[in-house]
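Protein folding task:
====================
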Amino acid sequence: MKKILLLIVVFSLFGNLYSQTWVKIDKTNPDYSFSVPGQPLIRDTMNIRIAYFKSDSTAAFQVIEFKDTPLDSTNAGFVSALQESNGDTLMALVHIITGVNNALVTNSQVITTFPAYKGLEVSMSYSNFYPGRNLIVHTRFFYNIHSLLAFSITGTDDHLTQLESDKDIFFNSIAF
């Protein structure tokens, strides 16, 4: 699980350059949609589907879908994270991510927009990726018994205004 979570950060650091035209992407099973500024690279392997897009040097967008991944008490690390987060499944996931990657959670809020999914928005800062600047990752997690979806946008703090603007457009485009 740690390797999969590390993919969230790694995939957000690399990619091809595309135009700034926002494109709506529709997915099925589960049904959801989102928009990114260009056509994303999509990889579908085993029970993980990854859509990745890098708009330019200021932001990278990523959607990771984990199919049939129940978050339960069969993993000792997850059980420990659940205890630390008072039984909150998504916050336990955030504890694991921050522990593996030495991230600092700068903001978190529960998302209640989509009743079929438990949602959590988290902002994290990584100080050990680039000398003299911080890597900022904003992620919205959505979980139900059938799937875990992670919508992320990543950039550096020296382009914070553009990153925040793109985050709002990206996150507001998510629909189920």
Observations:
- Residues 2-172 form a domain with the Protein Transport Mog1p; Chain A fold (CATH 3.40.1000.10).
- Strands lie at 23-27, 32-36, 41-45, 48-56, 59-67, 104-111, 118-130, 133-144, 147-156.
- The mean pLDDT is 82.
- The chain is about 25% helix and 45% strand.
